[in-house]
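Blackboard transcription, Thursday session:
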Amino acid sequence: MTGSIEVKVTCKTEEATDIASFELARLDGAPLPRFSAGSHIDVHIPGGLTRQYSLCNDSTEQHRYRIAVLRDPASRGGSTAMHDTVKEGDVIRISTPRNHFPLQHAKRSLLFAGGIGVTPLLCMAQRLAAIDADFTLHYCTRSEDRTAFIKEIEASDFSKRVKLHFDAGPPINRLDIVETLAEPAADKHLYVCGPGGFIDFVINSAKNNGWGHEQIHLEYFANTPQDTSGNGKFEVRIASTGKTYSVEAGQSITRVLQDNGIDVLTSCEQGVCGTCITRVLEGEPDHRDLYFTDEEKAKNDQFTPCCSRSKSKLLVLDL
Ligand code: FES
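(Written on the board underneath:)
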């Protein structure tokens, strides 16, 4: 169970065009809970929104957490509120850190960051450098002015392990994904975070080059809006009570359950964080999340009711 903490915004910094970082510390200055590279926190944003942000400071630090937020006009309001409303000195509530994107033991690690997806990977790079591990961080952005933490990276003791790739830069500087992923090996692992298209590009290239599923690790930071025009009506049954509820085309399962007094813990409400995972006892879920692997989805024994639906007329849930 994740706890929650009240923290103060001790520093807000413009890191690049449309990207601001926020440093968070306990009100009494006491140490924050430890975290590992790849962890994220839920941030309860003024206005009632909750969003997940990766921690992008050194994972040995306990005096602060640092997150970075891209102003995204296509978002559902969280990033705008962080940029326009939250300021230094504000007190906000966050969850304790969770890690769905941990580093594995590997002889060599390849990190691929697309834009703001650099946040968990920067933390990983710091950790890998600290333990003197072999790694390269490929950091892809549109242009230098949109590259958060570039000065910090250039000044770091792992700067030689970072390759910057700007879309607007000379072609020679672009990421040559085929060459970079040319030699898969059991003791190499790759990590990718960024927009969906970037992640798909890296993963498909890795698979085409013979990388195994267990060597590929990814974290989406938002689900893409889904086409809901084909959504149909179905029913969910609560195994413990036997009660059945109808889910209309325009409703989510969690909303229907909440309206009937059944609380399923949610956070991102878009299939990214895994908070709402629920076991399925009967029926076939229509998985709409980015959390489970294809193999996990194929088992159909659990799903994310915040965004997923049903292919069968009835789903029986272990609630
Ligand atoms: S609430 Fe995040 S996956 Fe459902």
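Lecturer's comment: Residues 4-95 form a domain with the Elongation Factor Tu (Ef-tu); domain 3 fold (CATH 2.40.30.10).
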